[in-house]
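Please fill in the sequence for the structure shown.

STRUCTURE ENCODING:
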C-alpha cells in the first residue's frame, strides 16, 4: 500500500489541479532542511553538557577520544564539524541518488528525505542524551546529510516542468525556503532549549528530537502534496518562445553525458567559486563587523574604554547583522532567480561576479573610513547574490541540458557546494590566523581575505564567460528520450495535459500557502527585530 501511494504514476496532476499548489509543497521541505544554516545555535550548549568535568583528564582531549567520551565536554570546534559533515553529505547524496530520484518521483524522494532528516535529528538527540559524539555525527551529520541532499533536489525538476515559462522564479521559491529555514528553525530551537533546559543536557537532546519529529511531519506533508505535470503539458497561452534563445535548448541531455561535458564543469566551477566567496562573508561577518568597527559604533576610540554594557551593545549589533544576512540570503534567492528569467542565466551570473568584485574590493575602504552603514548594505547585497547563485543554478542547468534529467544533473553539480562548504571556511580561517600570527592588527586582517574573495569571483567570471550551448551530438536521440521517459514512468502516466493546472487555487491551496507562509513571516519578523539592534 505504501509503495503504491509513493509511486510516481499515482501523483500525476488531474483535471482542475492548479500548478501554484506545487511551490508550497517544495517550501515545506526546504524550510525544514534549511535549518542547516541555523545549527550554530546548538554549538555552545553542546559544549557545556557535563556540569563538572575533570579538568586534568579532559585537558587537550583529541577529536577521536571526544567521539566516545562520556566524562568530558566537547569543544565548540569538535561539534562544528557536524555542519561540514551534512553539507558534504548533501552534495554526495544528491550526486549518488539524483538519477534514482528522476525515476522514483518527488513524493517518494521527499518522504525518504523526511525520514532521513527528521530521523537523523532524533538520532542525534539520542547521541546528545547519552553523550556519544559519534552518534550525533551519524544522526545529524551523515543520515541528516542524506536527507538534506534528497530534500534539496526533490522539487527541482517538478517545479521546472510546471513552470517552463518561469523556471528561475519557480526554483527561486523553493530554494528561498532553504535560505529562510534558519530564520524559522533557529528561534524555535532556542525557545525549545530554554523550555527543556531544566530537564538536563542544556535542553539540546530534547530539542533535537522534537524538531526531528516536527520536520518529519512537515516534510512528509510537502512530499504528499507534490503532483507531476502530465506529459506534454504547457501553460495556457505559452508557446515556448523562450526556447528560441540561443542559451536555452529545446532538447535534452542524459545525466551520463551531461557531467562529462565542459559546460557541466564550467558551471560547477561557477557555483563553487560563488559559494566559496559567499561563505567567506557568512563565516566572518559577525567577528569582522566587531573587529573592524568595534568601539567606533558607540563613538568611543578604543575597545579598552568600553564597559560591559557597551560591549554587549556591539555584540547585539553584530548579531543583528547576522539576522540581516539570513534575511537577504533568503530573499535574494527569489529576487535574482526571478530576474534571471528576464536577463538570462549567464548574464545574471555576470552581474553576480562583476558587482560582487566591486563590493568585496570596496569593503576594506568602508571599514577604514568607519562607514558602518554602507558596510552593512554592501554585505547584504553580497548575500543576496550568494543566495541567488543557488536558486539560479537549476534553471541554468535546464537551459543548457534540458529538463528531462535536470534534477539528477543538479544533484551531481551540488558536489561543488560540498567542496565550497569545506574549503571556504578553512581557507578563510587559515588566512586570518596567518595574518594574526604575523602581528597584523585585528581591524586590518580582513582586507586581504576580502581581496582574495574578489579574486575567486574573477575566476568564476572567466568560467561563466566560457559557458556555451552543448553540441547536438550530446543530446539524446528520440529513441533515447523515449526510453528515459519510459523509465521515468511518463508513458504510464495518464494524460490530462489540456486540463491540469487550469483549476482555481481553492481553500486547500490557500491553507497550503498559509502553512508555509506564516512560519516564514514569523521568522522574518524575528530577523528584523534582531537587525534593529544595528540602528
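FILLED IN BY: designer on duty
SEQUENCE:
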Amino acid at each position: 500500500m505504501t509503495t503504491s501511494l509513493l509511486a510516481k504514476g499515482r501523483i500525476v496532476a488531474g483535471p482542475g489541479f492548479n500548478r501554484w499548489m506545487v511551490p508550497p509543497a517544495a517550501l515545506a521541505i526546504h524550510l525544514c532542511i534549511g535549518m542547516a544554516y541555523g545549527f550554530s545555535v546548538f554549538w555552545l550548549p553542546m559544549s557545556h553538557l557535563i556540569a563538572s568535568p575533570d579538568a586534568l583528564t579532559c585537558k587537550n582531549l583529541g577529536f577521536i577520544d571526544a567521539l566516545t567520551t562520556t566524562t568530558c565536554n566537547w569543544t565548540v570546534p569538535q561539534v562544528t564539524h557536524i555542519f561540514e559533515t551534512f553539507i558534504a553529505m548533501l552534495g554526495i547524496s544528491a550526486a549518488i541518488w539524483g538519477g534514482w530520484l528522476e525515476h522514483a518521483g518527488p513524493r517518494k524522494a521527499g518522504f525518504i528525505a523526511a525520514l532521513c532528516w527528521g530521523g537523523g535529528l532524533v538520532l542525534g538527540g539520542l547521541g546528545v542524551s547519552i553523550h556519544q559524539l559519534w552518534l550525533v555525527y551519524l544522526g545529524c551529520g551523515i543520515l541528516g546529510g542524506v536527507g538534506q541532499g534528497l530534500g534539496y533536489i526533490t522539487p527541482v525538476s517538478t517545479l521546472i516542468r510546471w513552470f517552463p515559462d518561469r523556471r528561475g522564479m519557480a526554483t527561486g521559491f523553493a530554494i528561498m525556503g532553504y535560505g529562510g529555514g534558519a530564520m524559522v528553525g533557529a528561534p524555535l530551537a532556542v525557545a525549545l532549549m530554554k523550555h527543556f533546559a531544566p530537564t538536563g543536557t542544556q535542553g539540546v537532546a530534547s530539542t533535537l528530537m522534537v524538531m526531528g519529529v516536527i520536520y518529519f511531519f512537515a516534510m512528509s506533508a510537502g512530499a504528499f502534496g507534490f503532483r507531476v505535470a502530465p506529459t506534454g503539458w504547457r501553460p495556457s497561452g505559452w508557446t515556448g518562445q523562450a526556447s528560441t534563445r540561443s542559451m536555452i535548448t529545446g532538447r535534452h541531455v542524459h545525466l551520463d553525458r551531461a557531467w562529462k561535458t565542459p559546460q557541466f564543469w564550467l558551471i560547477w566551477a561557477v557555483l563553487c567559486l560563488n559559494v566559496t566567496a559567499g561563505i567567506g562573508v557568512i563565516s566572518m561577518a559577525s567577528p569582522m563587523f566587531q573587529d573592524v568597527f568595534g568601539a567606533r559604533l558607540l563613538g568611543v576610540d578604543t575597545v579598552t574604554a568600553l564597559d560591559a554594557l557597551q560591549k554587549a551593545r556591539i555584540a547585539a549589533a553584530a548579531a543583528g547583522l547576522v539576522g540581516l544576512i539570513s534575511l537577504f540570503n533568503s530573499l535574494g534567492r527569489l529576487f535574482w532567480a526571478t530576474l534571471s528569467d528576464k536577463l538570462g542565466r549567464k548574464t545574471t551570473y555576470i552581474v553576480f561576479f562583476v558587482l560582487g568584485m566591486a563590493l568585496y574590493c570596496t569593503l576594506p575602504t568602508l571599514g577604514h573610513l568607519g562607514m558602518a552603514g554602507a558596510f552593512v548594505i554592501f554585505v547584504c547585497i553580497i548575500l543576496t547574490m550568494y543566495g541567488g547563485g543557488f536558486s539560479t543554478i537549476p534553471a541554468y542547468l535546464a537551459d543548457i541540458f534540458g529538463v528531462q534529467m535536470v534534477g539528477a544533473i543538479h544533484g551531481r553539480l551540488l558536489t561543488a557546494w560540498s567542496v565550497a562548504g569545506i574549503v571556504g571556511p578553512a581557507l578563510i580561517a587559515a588566512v586570518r590566523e596567518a595574518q594574526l600570527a604575523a602581528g597584523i592588527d585585528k581591524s586590518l586582517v580582513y582586507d586581504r581575505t576580502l581581496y582574495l574573495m574578489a579574486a575567486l569571483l574573477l575566476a568564476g567570471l572567466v568560467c561563466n564567460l566560457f559557458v556555451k550551448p552543448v553540441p547536438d551530438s550530446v543530446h539524446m536521440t528520440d529513441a533515447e528520450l523515449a526510453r528515459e521517459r519510459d523509465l521515468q514512468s511518463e508513458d504510464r502516466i495518464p494524460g490530462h495535459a489540456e486540463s491540469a493546472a487550469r483549476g482555481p487555487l481553492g481553500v486547500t491551496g490557500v491553507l497550503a500557502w498559509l502553512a508555509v507562509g506564516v512560519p516564514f513571516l514569523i521568522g522574518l519578523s524575528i530577523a528584523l527585530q534582531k537587525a534593529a539592534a544595528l540602528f
